[in-house]
Amino acid sequence: MDNSKRTVVVTGFGPFGEHTVNPSWVAVQELKKLGLGSEVDLHVYEVPVEYQTVQSLVPSLWKQYHPLLVVHVGVSGMATTVTLEKCGRNHGYKGLDNSSFCPDSQCCIVGGPDCIDSVIDMESVCKRVTASGLGVTVSVSKDAGRYLCDFTYYTSLYLSHGRSAFIHVPPIGKPYSGEDLGRALKAIVQEMLELLDQAEEKIHCQQHFH
Predict the structure, then answer these.
(1) Strand pairing partners for 202?
(2) Distance CA 71, CA 26 (A)
(3) What are the pLDDT digits (tens) for 48-67?
(4) 135 SS3 class
(5) Strand partners, 46
(6) What is the pTM of this model?
(7) Is 149 a catalytic site residue?
(8) Set 50, 85, 108, 191: catalytic member
(9) CB of 85 within 8 A of CB of 185?
């Protein structure tokens, strides 16, 4: 029976800077409490704010779980909305991580494309979640910030051929509670799965008619 379940991995980040508990991990833990329904096998992970850990952990998650979708969640101190990131970028990583490390190449994957888009239509997810009257404002962005968030996203997009997503959340209480953010993540990830299902059906139909 478990074979019929779809596996989804959602990650938040560990502490960094003034965030002794990272709001992204608070939001992901709230999502874990809510779950994604009986047909989805949800696994959550806290990712340290370290480039080298990301380089080994992200591939291991894909290898271990063979998930339908991996969603990474990070905090943006400037954000006041829950922000869906459309793409990850390969170059421009100059900020030091928690281990005071930065890749010499200042890029994620040497020789990789400059930018990789998610296969998920973030504009569509944003519209659908907004229309559902969630009470949390959702927006879309094309710049995940060239730090660990962007680095993680690009790495995942590269490994999954675009079957990843990244969501930036604001700090807790500015304006949303952890519970609010958990509800928002649930609604967003469910819409993403719905869109992936529709894309899958379309492919099957096309194969059927050719």
Answers:
(1) none
(2) 15
(3) 999 999 999 999 999 999 99
(4) coil
(5) 12
(6) 0.94
(7) yes
(8) 85
(9) no
Classify residue 170 by its DSSP letter. P
- Residue 85 and residue 166 in contact, taking contact as beta carbons nearer than 8 Å: yes
pLDDT mean for each 10 residues of the chain (210 residues): 78 92 97 97 97 97 96 95 98 96 96 97 97 95 95 97 97 96 98 91 58
Per-residue pLDDT tens for 22-55? 999 999 999 999 999 999 999 999 999 999 999 9
Residue in 31, 32, 42 with CA at minimum distance from that of residue 5: 42
For each of the domains in the chain, give its residue range(s) and CATH number, in order of start.
6-208 (3.40.630.20)
CA gap 189, 130 in Å, rounded: 13
Q: What are the beta bridge partners of residue 72?
A: 11, 166
Cα(112)–Cα(130) distance, integer angstroms: 34
30, 50, 149, 191: the catalytic one is 149
Contact partners, residue 100, CB within 8 Å, separation at least 6: none
Active site residue 102: no
